[in-house]
Every structure is written in C-alpha cells, then in structure tokens.
C-alpha cells in the first residue's frame, strides 16, 4: 500500500535535504592555511618577484620531517629489505627540485635531468596539510603493489600494480636511492589535470641515484642489512644500511693529504727566528685529525676541491653512470683540483662506468695540465700553475682478527693508502692479550684492526665487514717530544 505524506512533511524533507547538501561545501580553514602562506610567501607577499638571495625553498623543519619519514617508511617495508640504504639530504637535489617547483608545471621535469634522477610530485590546496602528507600518500600506494620475489624474475621482474599508479611508492623505497632533496612552492592558478587551483602548494622531491628501473625489484628481500653494499662497513640502523663517521677535528698535516688554500704567488718576507722558549711542561697536547670510517660517497660531478675543504682527501665511492655526467676533467695522470673526482677516475681507468672505490692522493702544484681523451672521457688542458691530485685503484684484502696496522700497512713518508680490509665475524671473542685494542677512536698501530673496528662501532661483531684505515702520526708532548704511530678506522 502506497503511503501518502502530508504536504507539510514533504516540505520539511526538502528543507533537510537542502541543508545536508549545503553543509558538504566546506571553506578552507583560514588559520591553518595561513601557516603555509607564512612559511613560503616572501616577506613582501609577492611570489612573482625574485626570491631574496639565500632564501631556501623549504624550511629546515620541513626538510627534516620529510627525510625522517622517508627513512622510517623505508625501514618498515614488507617483505623486509636486505639492502635498503639510509637516506640523507642532498642540497644539490634540493636546488634542482626548487628550480622545477618554481615552474608550477604539474608534470615531471626538466626533461634533461630526468634520466639521472628519480622524482615524486605532490600538490594540494584548501585545508592545511604538513609536507609529510604527500610522502605518506606516496607510500600508501603499497596497498596496490605486489612485490616480485626472486623466483618471479626470469630474468626481468614483473611490475604488478592493481591501482592507478605504484611508482611513487617504488621510488620512495628504491634501495639504492640514498639521497633526497625537496622543495615547496606556492603556485597561483596552477593547472592540475585540467583543473585550475587558485593557490596550490607544490611539493617536488628529487632522488639519487635514480630508481624505478624497468625489470628490477625496488629492493632485495631478506634479513635487514644482510646485503648492504660494502661501503657501509656492516653498519645498520633501524633496518637500514647505515654509514657512520668517526671524526676527530682536523689539522693541515701533509701526512693526511688535506687540501689547503693555493700557495701565495708573491714573495714572502722571511720570518724572524722565534725566541728561545722553555721546554714544554708534561701535558698531553694532541694534534688530532679528521678521519672517516669508510669511503666517502660522492656524486659524478663532485669536484675534489669542493669535497676536501676541511676533510681528508683519501678514498671515495663513485656511483654508476658517471660516463654520461657533465663534470669537467682537467689534466692527464695529474688532475687539477677543479676536476670531477669520479670522472677523473674514469679517465684514468681506475674505475669503470659501474662506479666503485678509488683512492686520491694530493700531489702539490703542477705547472701545466695535459689535454687528452681516454676511456670515453675528454679532459681539458691548462697552462697555469695549480694544485693537483692523482687517482689509483683500491685493493681489497681479507685479514684475520689478529692483524695489526704495523704488520699490514706501516706508516711511511710519503704516506701510502692502505688496502680496503675485510674483517671476519666474532673477533670480539679473540684472546685480548693477543688481539689487543689500544686507544679509543684513535688507535695504536699495534692494535688488532678488526677488534678496534668493533670497538669503534664501525662493524658489527656478529657480521664483520669491510673497513678503511687511515694511518697518521699522533703527536703529543711530555718532557720530550714523542711520535706515536696510530690509525683510525
């Protein structure tokens, strides 16, 4: 039986329907929205004028939030990753992200840079959202992604994505993408898939090395940190391959191969002889050195002079693909300090386009540098005096728990590079009277190398791993001046 409602009840129902429909049209929260405007508008409020010099496209706090969330999400992937690398912030990637964010184009770019980097984009308008909103949204694509196990990769891994897109997620968790730089820009009247957004907050994140390679899984499945690259020396933090450093200030000693400013070109007046001073009192006045626990990871375009200001210039790890980079190389055999470290290594033939480790030795000033084309890398000539360096291959040697630096790599002048060393596991169980550890952070050359590495936290006792050692003279004063040979791992 059909029910007939009175006219007044039908009028009330229509009123309620209209009220419900109207309540769904929400206006942005002006207070929350102002948070975004305050952080990213220039002081004069005009985004179409040039930014002030030195003004960053992202605040330190937002950059840290983005970086921390990336590492948190990378460390909790499932199935677990055996080679997931800890991600660090890269100011050069931040700069390239800023340049693209300022175009306000809702597409990936620039085209010339995309073959070398990975990129994720996000945009929103209306309600205030923290910068991590988009990072979490990228990761949430995991619900539509099926990880390809090794038995499914024959030889190429399938990409199984049941949703619109999964590549934001795969780039975020790409194991070897260990550097990130992002920028945020406020774009007026931004065209997003045909819709005009009056005030869009545009987030651009660039990654290096690039991920999302066709036919490859984003990471290796296995026990966390069990398949880390050797350059991490067995380090592991929150399920991520982690490379720590041990740094003990710096000096400008020749033995540690530092890059000092250019020598003065004008004659210097002779210095007066110092007065006779009393002998130093018995104190421990140390000359310390800034030493790294493992090879420093650099980009294809990193120049030696830029990299070595205030840090030791010894061993570097170069990424793959530097043959196609644009960093210049000046010289042959002897390279000028403005040269790209990795491309000089390619030019000299000490590494190939797959990347790898190389040793760098400062060689002082050279009067000229020779132009040549070797191994696919052209170098420039220069007929002007400048500081120089040479490159060499890194040798790798397996050692025992008892091996000492005094036995393996005694200190000599001129200083030589020690091999990259591989320590076995369980060295902490060795007899401490035979495998001694003398020192903290800086160790006597009579110490067990591997036990010192465990002591310093460079490698784990239950895993072992690769380490680098740097020999030096450790000076201190007592009643007489003594030289004690030491090393750092």
UniProtKB/TrEMBL annotation:
Q: Which domain of life is it from?
A: Eukaryota
- Per UniProt, residues of the LCCL domain are 294-389, 395-471
| The keyword Signal is assigned to this record | yes
Alphabetical list of SMART domains matching this protein: LCCL, SCP
List where Pro residues composition bias occurs. 267-278
Name of one Pfam family that matches? CAP
Record has Amino-acid biosynthesis as a keyword: no
Region Disordered, annotated ranges: 259-278
The leader peptide range reads 1-23
Looking up PROSITE patterns in the UniProt record yields: CRISP_2, LCCL, PUA
Q: Which InterPro entries match?
A: Allrgn_V5/Tpx1_CS (IPR018244), CAP_dom (IPR014044), CAP_sf (IPR035940), CRISP-LCCL_domain (IPR051957), CRISP-related (IPR001283), LCCL (IPR004043), LCCL_sf (IPR036609)
Cellular component aspect of the GO annotation: extracellular region
Keyword annotations of the record:
Disulfide bond, Repeat, Secreted, Signal
Q: What is its main location?
A: secreted
What Gene3D superfamilies does UniProt report for this protein, alphabetically?
CAP, LCCL-like domain
Where it sits in the cell: the answer is: Secreted
Name the chain's protein: LCCL domain-containing protein
Q: Which organism does this record belong to?
A: Anabas testudineus (Climbing perch)
Q: In the record, what lineage is assigned to the organism producing the protein? A: Eukaryota, Metazoa, Chordata, Craniata, Vertebrata
